[in-house]
Amino acid sequence: MRLAQAGQHVLAVEQFQRSIELDPTVATVRHDLGLACLYLGRLEEAVSAFGHALSLKPDLKNAHMNLGNALDHLGREREAVVAFQMAVRLDPSLHAVHARIGQIYLAMGRRPQAEVAFQAAAAAATAVGSVSARIYAAYAQNIVGAVAVSESLLRDLIAEEPECGEAYVALGQLLAESGRSGEAAAHLERGLSLDLNLGAWNQLATNKKFRVQDKDLIDRMSTCLARPELRVLQRQALHFALGKAHDDIQDYATAIRHIDAANRIRATRGRFDHMTLARQTDHVIASAPPGYLERRPEMGVEDATPILIVGMPRSGTTLAEQIVSSHPNVAAGGELPFWREQNLAGLGTFDAPAKPDAARRLASDYLAVLRGISPDAHRVTDKLPFNFAHLGVIRQVFPRATIVHCRRNPIDTCLSIYSTDFQASFDFASNRGDLVFFYRQYLRLMAHWRAVLPPDRFIEVDYEALVADPEPLTRQLIATCGLEWDDACLTPHHNQRRIITASLWQARQPIYRTSVERWRRYEPWLGELRELLSDVAESSPIDAEV
């Protein structure tokens, strides 16, 4: 315990493991082992340790809470919520845990549950006299669309508690999601100067275009890396933020050094299994052979509400959603994990539903999620990129759904993934070779869907063509969605919808071309990504000469 308190977590793990060998029956030691592993970013080991602790002492609230934290970092949000709910059931005063449940529900598109969780967080924080109560209340107001009320609550709190860094960070997040990046960056900087809320550095980097004049701010971030209490995942976020900052000031050698350091940390979360992905891809393709839709025409429902926007992360999916949801008859759902959750049971659920009643049940559950986002919109978007793995099922259940496939230069796409600190954990994102393998499996799947899915209500949008001449592709996109034209779709940066993905700053800018062939700035450090030059013909067009 003393080693852990001194920040020497590797040595602490060794001592905890020795203690368990001597007496495996002590739940708190297993919990403390899990906590040390959590600090080190050894998340699977942490999950195992917390699980063992709970098998010995099921009412150990900290084990439930920290199990939720580990699962949350692994991107296993559904399991994390279960663990967090057990923790607050044992101790309702854990207001930060209530709040995290709310954040996860919000990311899932389950707004009513998110509001309830934030209200519970506010009540719990009020009971213990925490100023966080007003911050949680502001989040709850934001969820129900009362953005002005939410902003007012946070500004009033700052006026009364001008040293509350958490309030500045919360206001900065709200402003960023609403598209006011300049104000957001100023409040995030202020919050960080007050309490060095390390989790906000990457949010600041996302909302700020760094310039050479920001050297002092960049130096502050670098200094934070030396802090002994820094968790591994906080260190990862700082390296990503510094990578973004140095990229902005065109110091690409320093930028890639920080990006590589961040990915070395991210890689410790889990190992990417090439064989499993290839086997899954084979299974998906085999489950939807040519003509599979015609053999079961009674399976689907006629509802045309869903617009599925798919592709690799960082391929332009947020821009496509921003364009489509600028239409007055379209609501933006963001990244909804619905179809991924249906697949949690294993490979078998990649198959199209075997019975019409199962298909109708899927349709009803999915439409309930979409209607929770907007009861009245003619169309609702779902831009979880990895839904490309489930298009066979989706098209069978919703034959009138629109599928938008976003494509971008493969090296730009993979380099951007490598450079981005995603909320979820992508096991392929931290290694150039893994990225190449994953990208090629994605190409295999999309080639299959291109061959077997009917071309109506299916459109492929090349990022480079879209930013070069937006209007023709935008008109085609809106028409494919079965919508009348609206000029608002040509100014997506004016769309004030709430955005929580990594592209929230870019989505607020007028359509620009500066990200086209960004990979050339990092040409000396491409490594295995250079192999993707041979895949250019299967993706969006680029000049392949280096």
List the helices and strands and how they pair.
Layout: H1 2-5, H2 9-22, H3 27-40, H4 43-56, H5 61-73, H6 77-90, H7 95-107, H8 111-127, H9 132-143, H10 147-160, H11 165-177, H12 181-195, H13 201-207, H14 215-224, H15 232-248, H16 252-266, H17 274-287, H18 292-295, E1 306-311, H19 317-324, E2 330-332, H20 338-342, H21 356-373, E3 379-382, H22 391-397, E4 402-407, H23 410-419, H24 432-452, E5 458-462, H25 463-468, H26 470-480
Parallel strand pairs: 1-3, 1-4, 2-3, 4-5
Compute the separation of the termini in Å: 54 Å
Radius of gyration (CA) equals 23 Å
Tell me which CATH architecture of the domain at 274-512 applies here.
3-Layer(aba) Sandwich
Helix content: 55-70%
Could you tell me the number of beta strands?
5
Name the average pLDDT. Answer: 88
Query: How large a portion of the residues is in β-strands, by DSSP E?
Result: under 5%
Largest beta-sheet characterization: 5 strands, parallel
> What spatial order of strands do you see in the largest sheet?
2-3-1-4-5
Fold and architecture overview:
There is one protein chain. This protein has helices at residues 2-5, 9-22, 27-40, 43-56, 61-73, 77-90, 95-107, 111-127, 132-143, 147-160, 165-177, 181-195, 201-207, 215-224, 232-248, 252-266, 274-287, 292-295, 317-324, 338-342, 356-373, 391-397, 410-419, 432-452, 463-468, 470-480, and strands at residues 306-311, 330-332, 379-382, 402-407, 458-462. Residues 345-350 and 537-546 have low confidence and may be disordered. Among the domains are: 163-269, Serine Threonine Protein Phosphatase 5, Tetratricopeptide repeat, CATH 1.25.40; 274-512, Rossmann fold (3-Layer(aba) Sandwich). It contains 26 helices and five strands. It is globular and about 65 Å long. The chain starts with a helix and ends in a 66-residue tail after the last helix. The chain is mostly helical. It has a five-stranded parallel β-sheet, with helices on both faces. Helix content is 57%, strand content 4%. Helix 2 runs antiparallel to helix 3, helix 9 runs antiparallel to helix 10 and helix 15 (232-248) packs antiparallel against helix 16 (252-266).
